[in-house]
Amino acid sequence: MVTRFLREKHIAYVKSLDTRRDELEYWLSEHLRVSGIYWGVCALELMGARDALPRDEMIAYVKSCEHADGGFGAHPGHDAHILYTLSAIQILALQDALDEIDADLHAAYVCSLQDKATGAVRGDRDGDEFDTRFVYISMQALVLLGRFRDERHKFDIDAAVAYIALCRNYDGGFGMVPGAESHAGQIFTCLAALAIAGRLDEPGVVDRDLVCWWLSERQVPSGGLNGRPEKLPDTCYSWWVLSSLAILGRLDWIDKNKLREFILDAQDDEAGGIADRKGDVADVWHTHFGIAGLSLLGFDDLAPIDPVFCLPVSLVQNIRSRNKK
Ligand code: GRG
Description:
The protein is mainly alpha-helical. Helix content is 47%, strand content 0%. The mean pLDDT is 96.
């Protein structure tokens, strides 16, 4: 059983990811490369290793994924999608390089994806996939760009909140679209979107006791958290469940020490990185969300993370004070 946080190994693991170009996995993950960089860079920042990756090269790569009519793809030549647009903007924010892009261009792209009749947000211009993830992503992207509640960009916050309310279920949770099963990941996106909009207390939307009961029920005897009933625990829910509880001020509704044990035991004690659970192969997604969970729990001397933005608290504070000016 691994009982110590392996900081140096994880830093080395994240740094190694970009040098593995001879491995099949590197090429198989091209479709989500920009998000992979956000996960890696954010994890490094939480571990106090901001300079571990080459900044200029990273910024140039992100900009090579930019589309002239707004938005970012996952890799150069890939279509723009809201998922990668947020990751690109988050990386630039983490590198203090947001002034290298045209904020109005990307804010216009994000706003163009909202269906003003329902408040829902589609993932890309050509598709018809709507998902509560995209509502949250639009709001976070607009805040980072300094264009939230900006008269030049029409994002209908009331309609978005009404759409989220429609996605609420009888068990207090939220799903991907109206009528879809509650899932911890979607609960995070809905609560975080409501938090950004300042509407967590919207009448009839968030039943704090009920949803926090549902979330705390996600902890299984091993200490790990699952994303919905009867599913296996997975390190990434150390973020989706915990951040939701943190947004509602109920982090103490789970056993923190047992969860830490579960996350630490999923570490690869040779090559570094964290897996979904003990014995599985580590990857950058679980490494990031495992470390983000430990940060929320206040363990292992990690930089504090903001539960709404999934970015370091210090960065979110800077962005908020910049937006106030
Ligand atoms: C900036 C933190 C941040 C997020 C951006 C992408 C996104 C917005 C949110 C994703 C929320 C979400 C739905 C997370 C869950 C992802 C996941 C592990 C899905 C797996 O679902 P299943 O059904 O797995 O395959 P289970 O665990 O239910 O068996």
